[in-house]
Amino acid sequence: MADTMRAIVLDAPGPPDALTIRELPVPTPAAGWVLIEVKAFGLNRSELHTRQGLASGVTFPRVLGIEAAGVVAQCPGGELAVGQQVVTMMGGMGRTFDGGYAEYTCVPASQVIPFASDLEWSTIGAVPEMLQTAYGSLTVGLDARPGQSILIRGGTSSVGMAAAVLAKQRDMTVLSTTRRANKAAALTEVGVDHVLVDDGNVARQVHEILPAGVDTALELVGTPTLPDTLRSTRQHGVVCFTGMLSNVWTVPDFYPIEYLPRGVRLTAYHGEAEDLPAPVLQAFLDTVAAGEAVVPIDRVYGFDQIVEAHAALEAGAGAGKLVITT
Fold first, then answer.
1. Class of domain 4-127+295-325
2. What is the pTM assigned to this prediction?
3. Which of these, 103, 129, 274, 276, has the minimum number of CB atoms within 10 Å of its CB?
4. Does residue 55 surpass a pLDDT of 90?
């Protein structure tokens, strides 16, 4: 194994070209940590926020990346076998310690999830954070049940498309929003039943389809659309606040009785690697391999294309996940 590696480093917040590729020493794992040879990693808005200077608790210079997929290179504690296929995510990656934007990353063993798959690394690299967030939102956040209806607000995001895939596996009726009508086909391809063009009044469109409103709703856009999402939901239905694609994070002067429709329940979800059980990851990858589910990928970039990829992430013009292969 080489002593040095290529890594994508951010010295301070800035535009996409603030991300630079340089040679760094390969990390040495301590007991309880795992060195992973990174094969692919997905891009996330969390990393965009860090690059823009919006994240708290980050020190620089920093190798970004809250997730990665690859194989175990070293594991001094013996928790995993060398060569084992794994994914990792969260736990401070790319924020309090260097993350997945590198040829090797070193992370706590507790946040490493093993799997076995013959899928391309470019496909697997899109999965970890996207699946964890979508799965956790449906289970912890919404307690979604087979046969229910779900509104996904921010449907062409990678998490929104993954949530649609998981919801259809549960035989749910899926309504999903997009601001651009030309993205409708991308949603129907992952099984969405009703594509709604978000004109700011999605509740009206929902009630035309389901007069009482949806059983569940997943809010991925953020606080600007949350009131309309709440109005889209039936009495005793549940709305889960998971995403902030709008970059608007708070509700000023929140007065619950005025803000919340009568009897509509509001929850939230944010998760860690422990919220994605290994059997769930393995089952999802198996269904993808069998052609029974899809991984919503917008584009795969090479390692040297990180600036172009981050510019695309910031523009938000795609539908699905952006992935980098090493």
1. alpha beta
2. 0.93
3. 274
4. no
